[in-house]
Design brief:
Radius of gyration: 24 Å
Largest sheet: 8 strands, mixed
Distance between the termini: 49 Å
Number of strands: 12
CATH architecture of the largest domain: 3-Layer(aba) Sandwich
Bound molecules: nicotinamide-adenine-dinucleotide
Number of helices: 15
Oligomer: single chain
Length: 406
């Protein structure tokens, strides 16, 4: 394809890797962010998160040449919006104010023939009911002068490079021409399949993906509570049930976290509360789990006065550095609020990297393994004897280990 000039609005976890991949494909890319330090980091070639593969690509000569950061947009062929869409705290609906501001910032630079792509996760109908009317304030008509698509992102932070290149993607155009133009952009760096659809189907499908995971995790968590009451080992029971050829029960855990799973199901409920009862209940079940885990820890330590706890793992799931909405942090917070002394440790998370465990364990009454990264499992297995020897009470609490797991 002919190389384009592409403005990416919002260069965080999603926008920056995207801008880097587009620059690597030969496009002239301008990463726009309202945060000055983010813009400076782009121009200095500094990646603000721990993704070695992305960092290497960022250092490639072509990428450094084709990508620059700016505080304000400029004219371009394509504008991609990848700004946050958080939940409004009380109403549990999407806060679209960043999307609205991002769109307003490009209006002065829109020209006939431009393509606007929304990568941010949005409730169904956002492209038609929110985005298109704002774009049309420019005097240009969507579907005639300006083209519009929703192309949701599916990356998993921690494995961004592989996922941004090899995942299949949805290209949801408000009309076939818009979809065709967006397909051209993504095919310049995506090796996965590109599925062409309309904008509303793409908006809904993106939310269904994370909702599917949330509901199935809630089911596993509910099974775990039932098994607990019966004195059954849930991991053993799941292993047995999964021997059925058409059953694949997910793993229970200490709660769901990350940027997407605790948020996206609410965006479906927002547009159709009547038909979202299961989705809503699953959200409540998963949000409750950190409280239950904190209660289990308190129960296990009930006979120790002023116990000292070392909490292993603070990220939202194993083998990532991402701490957003981490249930482990929630559990630690609940215990601290109750007056427990808790020393968190996580070799993957910024600001929690002290260790090793055998030193942190000195005089501790309990090690609570909240998030078992591969490196934590290895450290526990390697130093178990020394860790237990250092502890005042050699108690290690682990949650939901598969039989045979370290
Ligand atoms: N992080 C993920 O794993 C992930 C995965 C799939 C989808 N998403 C979706 O992608 C979107 C972006 O998420 P993220 O994780 O990259 O967020 P982020 O917070 O990491 O980055 C967003 C960036 O946008 C900037 N910004 C905000 N308003 C702006 C404006 N008006 N103009 C320019 N820049 C602006 C912020 O300063 C920030 O740097 C969200 O809708 C999210 O739900 C995220």
């Amino acid at each position: 394809m002919a190389n384009k000039k592409i403005v990416v609005i919002g260069t965080g976890y999603v926008g920056l890797p995207l801008a880097i991949m587009l620059a690597r494909a030969g496009h002239q890319v301008i990463g726009v962010d309202i945060e000055e330090n983010v813009v400076n980091a782009i121009n200095e070639g500094v990646l603000p998160f721990a993704e070695e593969d992305v960092r290497k690509v960022f250092q490639e000569t072509d990428v450094r040449k084709n990508l620059r950061g700016q505080r304000v947009p400029c004219e371009a062929d394509v504008f991609i919006i990848s700004v946050p869409t958080p939940l409004e705290d009380k109403k549990r609906i999407a806060d679209l104010s960043y999307v609205v501001e991002g769109l307003k910032s490009i209006i002065p630079f829109l020209r006939r023939g431009n393509l606007v792509i929304i990568e941010s996760t949005v409730p169904p109908l956002t492209c038609r009911q929110v985005v298109a009317p704002i774009i049309e304030q420019s005097g240009l008509k969507v579907g005639q002068d300006i083209f519009l698509c929703h192309c949701p992102e599916r990356i998993l932070p921690g494995d961004t490079f592989k996922e941004i290149v090899y995942n299949d993607r949805l290209i949801g155009g408000v009309d076939p021409r818009s979809a065709d133009m967006a397909r051209e952009v993504y095919s310049s760096f995506v090796e996965g399949k590109l599925y062409i659809t309309d904008d509303i189907s793409a908006e809904l499908a993106k939310l269904m993906e994370n909702t599917y995971r949330d509901v199935n995790i809630a089911l596993a968590n509910e099974f775990a509570a039932v098994a607990d009451g019966l004195g059954v080992d849930i991991m053993h029971a799941i292993g047995l049930a999964n021997k059925h050829p058409r059953v694949n029960i997910l793993q229970p855990g200490i709660g769901t976290g990350g940027h997407c799973i605790p948020k996206d199901p609410w965006l479906i409920k927002q547009v159709d509360p009547v038909n979202s009862r299961l989705i809503y209940t699953a959200r409540l079940i998963n949000d409750e789990i950190p409280f239950k885990i904190a209660a289990k820890i308190r129960h296990a330590l009930r006979e120790i006065p002023s116990p000292r706890i070392v909490a292993l793992g603070v990220t939202y799931k194993p083998d990532t550095y991402d701490m957003r909405n981490s249930p482990a942090l929630k559990i630690i917070d609940l215990l601290v609020q109750d007056g427990y002394q808790v020393q968190p440790y996580d070799p993957l998370a910024r600001n929690y990297r002290w260790g090793p465990i055998k030193e942190l364990a000195r005089d501790a009454d309990c090690l609570v393994a909240l998030v078992e990264h591969r490196v934590i499992k290895e450290e526990l297995a390697r130093d178990e004897a020394a860790i237990k020897k250092a502890m005042r009470h050699p108690r290690i609490l682990r949650f939901y280990q598969y039989p045979g797991g370290a």
